[in-house]
Amino acid sequence: MKNSTDISFEPVVGRYLNLPLLGKPQRLYIEEAGSGIPLLCLHTAGADSRQYRALMNDPELLEQFRIIAFDLPWHGKSSPPAGWQNEPYKLTSKDYVSVILAVADALQLDKPLVMGCSIGGRIVLHLALEHPERFRGLIGLQSGAHVDPYYDLEWLHRPDVHGGEVCAGIVSGLVGPQSPVEHRWETLWHYMQGGPGVFKGDLYFYTVDGDMRDRVAQIDTSKCPLWLLTGEYDYSCTPQDTEFLGKSIQGADWQIMKGMGHFPMSEDPQRFLQYLKPVLAKARSM
User: Fold this and answer.
1) What does the longest C-alpha to C-alpha distance in the chain come to?
2) Tens digits of per-residue pLDDT, 229-264?
3) What is the CA 17 to chain-centroid distance, rounded?
């Protein structure tokens, strides 16, 4: 029989939120832990809220922040709406912003912090430009204004290949080489479990519809602080992409994270927290 010290519940609580999104009823899966300033976390393309598991188990953060993460429709435990089989999934910037604002309203979050990675890091820029008054601050992980596809996106949704393994294979090179093996493979497992065509549909926003290059200089950080953190080994959102944002957006606070790749919160959470906690301390003091 196992010792009782080997058995424990984590502080993370998951539940489903029923609400209308994008003209259809949706059943959205949400996890949260902690109390204090709300911190709404946005997962990467093709993945889900499990990427923030380490933040939701950090005792120091949970004393100060109510950490919330949700699975976008079609992702993780958020099933597609009824009739999904009759239409392809394709994420647009307008729909993405609409979902985030709707979730914040449904949870009655008063000026939350929002942190997003990859597509989440890109949509943070849209929020900073279009809705700065809604947020206490915005944190972009692996934020870039645009990226051109560097592989054939058709491989992400083909009947003659294993979609999940192809998705994981494509992103595997984006994980930092110093990331612990167990975290690397858990990050890739999330990609192996994605629904057919979902990663590809997210990349429509990332590579086409969400292009911000001609608008980022309009972001006013006096209305809402903006922090940018990017891993040095990322070739999807390169350090140079984030440097461009830092130099284009007056008042943006940006930093390159040594030894990290495209999925900092899941691939190497302890190293990531060393960069994130000073940012959260600044946000908390405002």
Assistant:
1) 62
2) 999 999 999 999 999 999 999 999 999 999 999 999
3) 19
d(CA 111, CA 12): 22
> What is the rounded CA–CA span in Å between residue 126 and residue 93?
8
Spatial separation of the C-alpha atoms in residues 69 and 65, rounded to whole Å? 12
Nearest to 49 by CA among 17, 89, 22: 17
CA angle, corner 213, sides to 207 and 219, nearest 5? 125
CA distance 74 to 88: 11
So what's the pLDDT on residue 272? 98
Q: pTM for the full model?
A: 0.95
Instruction: Look at residue 36 and tell me whether its pLDDT is greater than 90.
Output: yes
pLDDT digits (tens, 9 = 90+) for 83-96: 999 999 999 999 99
Rounded to whole angstroms, how far apart are CA atoms 13 and 66? 11
Output b/e per residue, 266-286; b: 16+ Cβ within 10 A: bbbbebbbebbeebbeebeee
Strands (E), 95-205: 113-117, 137-141
**Which residue ranges make up each domain of the chain?**
4-285
Q: How far is CA 65 from the centre of its chain?
A: 17
**CATH class for the domain made up of 4-285:** alpha beta
- Is residue 42 within 8 A of residue 114, CB to CB? The reply is yes
Question: Per-residue b/e over 164-182, b at no fewer than 16 CB within 10 Å?
Answer: bebbbebbeebbbeebeee
State the residue for tokens 């994420």. Answer: 91
Q: Give the E-state strand segments of the chain in sequence order.
A: 13-21, 24-33, 37-42, 65-70, 113-117, 137-141, 226-231, 253-257
